[in-house]
Every structure is written in C-alpha cells, then in structure tokens.
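Sanity check

After download, print the first record. It should look like this:
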Amino acid sequence: MASVTTLLRRALLALALLLPLAATAKEAAPASDDPVLEARVMRIAAELRCLVCQNQTIADSHADLAQDLRNQVREMLKQGKSEAEILAYMTQRYGDFVLYRPPVKSTTTLLWFGPAVLLLGGVAVLFVVLRRRSRLPDERFEPDVPDEDVAVR
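Expected structure tokens:
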C-alpha cells in the first residue's frame, strides 16, 4: 500500500511542476476562413522581415510583433489593398530594412555587396600573406623539435 501512495504523491508532484508550463502556453492565432486570402497574407508575409527576430520573415516568426504585422497585412488585404500598396506602406513606415529582399540602391549597396567585398578582401590578404611567407628563407622559421615527453614514451 505504501508504494501506491508513493506513486500517487510522485504523480501529483509531477503534475504540480508541469502546471506552470500549461499556464504560459498560447492559443494558436485563428487563421482566416478564406484560404485564398490566407495564402496571399503568407505570400506577402514571406517578403517582410521580422523586426524583432531579423533573421526570419514575419511568416516564419512567432514573435508578437510578427503576428501583429501579419494581422495588419490581412486587414489591408480585406480592405482591397494590393500587394504593392502593402509593401510600400510597410517600407514607408519601417524603411527598406523591413523588406526581406531590399532593392539595390545607394543606401543598400553595402548590404548587397558588402559580403562579397569582405570575401574578396579576405582572399587577397590570404594570398599576400602566403606569397610573402613562401619567399622567406628556411632560417626564418622555427625548426620542428620533438617534445622531450613525446620522445621518451
């Protein structure tokens, strides 16, 4: 009888420990009843960057702001706004940063071409260092001397 009581106590303790987790769970946001509208919302949301996460689109993000922006896109579509109007509104409000693929223009050239410039610069530095190093005489390098501990074993 003692083992049943112990099992019951452990089950109640586990339930008590898991109860706070259930209290913080969020209910799924209701999707639109119109699947065509929802597909348009997700297509536009895939073009907008989450301003909180920054590595995700608002279609992929679970942040509260991303949900709010998806709802705003949904409402604008219901009002009859086009995709271009919605993207223009979001760009006007949040800047080019909100676009997941910002346009190439003078203010975004570093964003578009910066990684390629850094890569080419790194390759050039590596090439120069290796070339200078290959021209050094052997006396400039330390000889490989085996450790005393390794040689004894």
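If your output differs, re-run the checksum step. Summary of this record's structure: Residues 19 and 25 are 10 Å apart (CA to CA).
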